[in-house]
Amino acid sequence: xxxSEIIKAVSSSRHGLLATxxxxxxxxxxxxxxxxxxxxxxxxVFSRRKSQKVTNLLARTAATLTLIDGSKYFAxxxxxxxxxxxxxxxxxxxxxxxxxxxxxxxADDRVVIFVTVERTLGVPF
Length: 125
What we know:
Layout: H1 3-12, E1 16-21, E2 27-32, E3 35-37, E4 42-48, H2 52-59, E5 62-69, E6 72-83, H3 86-100, E7 110-122
Antiparallel strand pairs: 1-2, 1-5, 3-4, 4-7, 5-6, 6-7
């Protein structure tokens, strides 16, 4: 799948479901506000350092971001990295603000999750 199709899908959807794997192998799924981050060529999601999704990703990088539009879905499967570098987090604010028309709340424990897509399921919309 071309990045342009992934960028279009992420750009057109306000919310997504991010699924990670817990320590005991269960799937942990949460509602997120994904956006495309050009400088990292990846889907990005803001989070807090001590969130369950971050804890899961630090142990196991597998992640699936699913976008839903009525009865259609588009799942993007790959690996995720958690970045807590304040400069990188701040750099991502512009991409988030461009999509959502607001800046995320400031927090000392803010991190950004980058999802690199390896394969997809469903059809982008």
